[in-house]
Design a protein that fits this description.
The chain is mostly helical. The protein has one domain. Helix content is 78%, strand content 0%. α1 runs antiparallel to α2. It starts with a helix and ends with a helix. The relative contact order is 0.12. The model has no long low-confidence stretch (mean pLDDT 78). This is DUF2304 family protein.
Length: 64
Amino acid sequence: MAVSISVVLLLLILAVIFMRNCALKISHALVCVLLGFFLAGSSMAPTIHSGLTATAELVSGLQP
């Protein structure tokens, strides 16, 4: 599990750097995809899923 968290953090840092440089290339997109796969397999996945679900419910409940 420690290796998985380390890989997730490394990929997250790389994705943030690539997005800040506004130079998202194919290789950078691959890093983002790998980050998603590693996040989905980590222990943080249920927390991320519940956070996204709560945010979606909040946004769908807003009245214009």
